[in-house]
Design brief:
about 100 residues, alpha+beta, Fructose-1,6-Bisphosphatase, Chain A, domain 1, 3-stranded mixed beta sheet, two-stranded antiparallel sheet, 5 strands
Amino acid sequence: MNDIDLETELKVAKSAALAAGEILKTKKSDLNVETFSSKRDIKLEADVVAEALIKEIIQDESNIAILAEESGKSSENLGDVFWVIDPLDGTANYSRNIPLCCV
């Protein structure tokens, strides 16, 4: 895993982020469905769908393990280098149409 091509991995990250961002924008009315909430956290269908898409793209194009906010680790031993996926940072803002959120 020492021979990581950062340029290629950045292209993978950009591709995954853009794809997730597009689905979060175009399918917002379908994805803005609450699946969990507490005083400090909210989870939407958007989080799950965006994460699944991001993971699919990364797993198809990269050999690096994944640590994802919603689904956890892709392997027991992540090693020294791994993807960290927060599929929708600012879920509460997204749900309220506040444009301060990102993939």
